[in-house]
Specification:
2 domains; 336 residues; 10 helices; oxidoreductase activity; 16 strands; Quinone Oxidoreductase, Chain A, domain 1; alpha/beta; Rossmann fold; 31% helix
């Protein structure tokens, strides 16, 4: 089968279109013929080697963290799916590889594809949907009437998180450029701040939750200060925490490193009487089933910016790296 692979970590080298073996399946795995694959900044960060300490992949490595497609083979212990099922998933770490014609992964990572949306739309949902769900529902336990600040509202996670927060009944503030104001308002944002002209820290106060995705240390400090006592900031960009290291079962020295890296922000949070968490999203087919129900009920709609042909996968990566995407970027793999 054809797949886009890398043979080493590199910021300069492009993905290589290669001929590789169709992946084998274990007893709890499904083999999926890929119709479409979502593209995420995480793919670029892994290619660059930014996560090599925490996720030491073997080469050659096929990238791609989002998939929608058709089950073509099931392992002997698989009970949730059958051949012919349309599914979508964010495969677990070390099972990634959706920039390919086929991919295999554990059945617990997948859910049936939401009805009445395309494969491309379905492929846009898993990683950002699970990130928003695990941040707002699992960690923050966001409730109706609370106030949440979602940074970068027009991005992949932002467009999903705004809709999820509104479904819960929260008041949503977000940042974006003036060009994307109408988009985030259409998704339900109550207060939109043009980050190019306005300072969110002067406009927001006593928020319950911040979904943090800006790498500027100043923005992290300001975000902690807009929280009410007992509020919670969940960061998608770090610094990572010892809790994260423990969850990944990392070696002791990496646990120590995360303790050092996060000590400053944890001290600030404690002094302010607020909470700080770092999220590195995990695969979860059960949560994808919950998301499927919301999509089918019309509570959440996919936001797809561009769809690239399989042969243009490197162009899709370049577009993601530009930071200009509104919602998600998707690669169409199968021509059926």
């Amino acid at each position: 089968m054809k797949a886009f692979t890398i043979n080493r970590y590199s910021k300069k080298e492009k993905l290589q279109l290669s001929e590789v073996t169709i992946p084998a399946i274990k007893e709890n795995d499904v083999l999926v013929q890929v119709d479409a694959a979502g593209v995420n900044l995480l793919d670029s960060l892994i290619k660059n080697g930014d996560f090599k300490l925490f996720l030491p992949y073997k080469f050659p490595l096929t990238l791609g963290h989002d998939v929608a497609g058709i089950v073509t083979k099931v392992g002997s212990h698989v009970r949730k799916f059958k051949v012919g099922d349309a599914v979508y998933a964010r495969p677990s770490d070390y099972s990634i590889g959706s920039f390919a014609e086929f991919i295999s992964f554990n059945e617990n990572d997948a859910a049936l594809k939401p009805k009445k949306i395309t494969m491309e739309e379905a492929a846009s949902l898993p990683l950002v949907g699970l990130t928003a769900w695990q941040s707002l529902i699992e960690i923050a336990k966001l409730k109706s009437g609370q106030k949440v600040f979602i940074q970068a509202g027009s991005g992949g996670v932002g467009t999903f998180a705004i809709q999820l927060a509104k479904h819960v009944g929260a008041f949503v503030a977000t940042t974006t450029s003036d060009a994307n104001t109408a988009l985030v308002q259409s998704l339900g944002a109550d207060l939109v701040i043009d980050y190019k002209k306005e300072d969110f820290s002067t406009k927001l106060k006593d928020y319950d939750v911040v979904l943090h995705s800006n790498r500027d240390p100043k923005v992290l400090d300001q975000s902690l200060r807009i929280l009410k006592p007992g509020g919670h900031l969940i960061s998608l960009v770090g610094p990572p925490t010892p809790e994260f290291a423990k969850e990944l079962d990392l070696p002791w020295y990496l646990k120590f490193i995360t303790k050092v890296l996060s000590s400053g922000v944890k001290k600030k949070a404690k002094k302010l009487g607020v909470n700080y968490s770092f999220l590195f999203m995990k695969a979860d087919g059960h949560q994808l089933n919950e998301i499927r129900s919301l999509v089918e009920a019309g509570k959440i709609r996919p936001v797809v910016d561009k769809i690239f042909a399989f042969k243009k996968t490197n162009d899709a990566m370049t577009y993601i790296e530009s930071g200009r995407a509104k919602g998600k970027v998707v690669i169409k793999i199968s021509e059926r």
